[in-house]
Write a structure and sequence with these properties.
By secondary structure, this protein is an alpha/beta fold. The chain folds into two domains: 51 residues, Roll (Urease, subunit C, domain 1); 91 residues, no CATH class. 15% of the residues lie in helices and 33% in strands. The chain is elongated and about 60 Å long.
């Protein structure tokens, strides 16, 4: 169990609660309030002075798949612009997530997505932002797929003189 203690909690309905606790059991929010009965052997995270958005998920980011210097890039498989079979679960690194420490900002879960450099980039997954093992942190895999016709696809493949060099080329690959 985890108790996020004394944070400023936004409930998603426009309400803001100061100095509020959140009790999480088995990855699920069990209680939110100011006078929660705290069970024994609960891990306590002091969120005083921090803002917490329980249940919110950032759906497209690179947290947990970029190394300490951001030079590691396990999210871009640039061997082919159409890679729907790729699965971001295999890119996740709990040490990278710990290094980035987004949990300190009150982010409890994040949707990790493959790069938008491919026209079809693969499966997305949702991870907790705190933990010591990727599969213990995994909330749900295959929650969506990434598709892109952005300039990133043109940059990744156009400089190699292969399709997609244009948005027209990217759209044509999505139809195949």
């Amino acid at each position: 169990m985890l108790l996020i203690k004394a944070g400023t909690v936004h409930d998603g309905n426009g309400n803001i609660f100061e100095n509020t606790d959140i009790l999480i059991k088995n990855g699920i929010i069990e209680a939110i309030g100011n006078s929660i009965d705290i069970p024994e052997n609960v891990e306590i995270y002091d969120a005083k002075g921090k803002v917490v958005f329980p249940g919110f998920i950032d759906s497209l980011n690179v947290w947990g798949a970029k190394g300490p210097g951001w030079e590691d890039d396990d999210l871009s498989e640039l061997s082919d612009p159409v890679t729907p079979q790729m699965d971001v679960v295999y890119s996740f690194d709990q040490d990278s997530m710990y290094f980035q420490r987004v949990f300190e900002y009150g982010v409890t879960s994040a949707g990790l997505a493959p790069s938008t450099s491919n026209v079809l980039g693969g499966y997305m997954a949702v991870f907790k932002t705190y933990g010591d093992h990727p599969y213990k942190m995994l909330v749900k895999d295959k929650v969506g797929q990434v598709a892109s016709i952005s300039s990133k696809t043109k940059i990744a493949y156009g400089k190699r003189n292969i399709c997609p060099m244009t948005k027209m080329g990217a759209v044509s690959l999505q139809k195949t």
